[in-house]
Amino acid sequence: MYTLTSVSKRYRRGKQTINALDSIDLTIDRGDQLVVQGPTGGGKSTLLQLLGGLDRPTTGSIVLDGTDLAKLSEAKLTKVRATTVGFVFQSWNLIPTLNARENVETALVPLGVRPGERRRRAAQALESVGLGERLTHLPGELSGGQQQRVAIARAIVKEPKVLLADEPTGNLDEDMRDEVMSVLESLWRERGLTFVMVTHDSAIARRAPRLAVIRKGRIKVSENAAA
Ligand SMILES: Nc1ncnc2c1ncn2[C@@H]1O[C@H](COP(=O)(O)OP(=O)(O)OP(=O)(O)O)[C@@H](O)[C@H]1O
Ligand SMILES: [Mg+2]
Question: What is the mean pLDDT of residues 173-197?
């Protein structure tokens, strides 16, 4: 699915250069789950952005199903983002004036899906995250965990191959954290998604089949045979 070879990402700020990622090699197979941990500023979000085509590496290649994302034109990269990759962030960024279903539909607009089909698929995605009864609620009328589940529905409604989550439970209290994690876990299992998640939650990391620790731009991956 993914093969990263010697991937570096450098940010230049005036005279200062920051090596956010420093010559990383990594493979992620189709249907894998990779949990990413590490200290703040280590390069976790940078890695997710590169995997999702939100940014390009300074050097190195990021091959996704035979295509090097580092070499794609901006237009082609935009297409990959719209069709292949679903993103979930710590802050769910829902549009407050749109109801749950309309928020989910926004992911299908750039794909040219017709309104009737959009509504049907959005309702289905919301059902799959357990919000079939909340289609017409505004974000302000939903709990934090429910709002994050709307954001997850928005990420998966286009039926992406890859789901990337950057601290998806970071803004939630413990009950809601479990609720959101179990939704993500079951989507990963049921849909055969390739799933990469950054988390500070060590209980989640212990359960992960594969764990990557990123520290000062360097990565170390370990397999967990027990998971
Ligand atoms: N757009 C940018 N311009 C300049 N430097 C940046 C930029 N984005 C990230 N950095 C720097 O790159 C390094 C890695 O940042 P990154 O956001 O990937 O860390 P992180 O592991 O996700 O941290 P956190 O746990 O705090 O979210 C940091 O030193 C950060 O300051
Ligand atoms: Mg981060």
Answer: 93
The Cα 146–Cα 144 span in angstroms is 5
The residues, ordered by sequence, that sit 6+ positions from 36 with a Cβ below 8 Å of its Cβ are 44, 47, 48, 196, 197, 198, 199, 211, 212, 213, 214
Copy the structure tokens of residue 93: 């960024």
pLDDT at 175 over 90: no
For the CA atoms of 154, 199, 162, 220, the dihedral, rounded to the nearest 10 degrees, stands at 170
Name the residue with the closest Cα to ligand 1, atom 31: 41
Distance of alpha carbon 87 from alpha carbon 69, whole angstroms: 17
CA-to-CA dists, residue 197 to 70, 164, 185, angstroms: 21, 6, 11
- Report the phi/psi class of residue 130: left, alpha or beta, with left for phi > 0 and alpha for psi in -120 to 50: left
pLDDT of residue 227: 65
Report in angstroms the alpha-carbon separations of 212 from 24, 26, 74, 123, 143. Answer: 11, 10, 29, 35, 31
**Which protein residues are within 6 Å of ligand 1, measured from CB?**
11, 13, 18, 20, 38, 40-46
Cα 100 to Cα 20, 23, 103, 126, distances in angstroms: 36, 41, 5, 8
Rounded CA-CA distance 35/185 in Å is 12
Q: What is the mean pLDDT of residues 158-175?
A: 93
User: From the CA of 18, how far away is ligand 1's center (Å)?
Assistant: 9
**Ion ligand 2 residues within 5 Å by Cβ:** 44-45
Contact yes or no for 85/28 (Cβ under 8 A): no
Interval 117-126: pLDDT, tens: 999 999 999 9
**Distance separating alpha carbons of residues 148 and 151, to the nearest angstrom:** 5
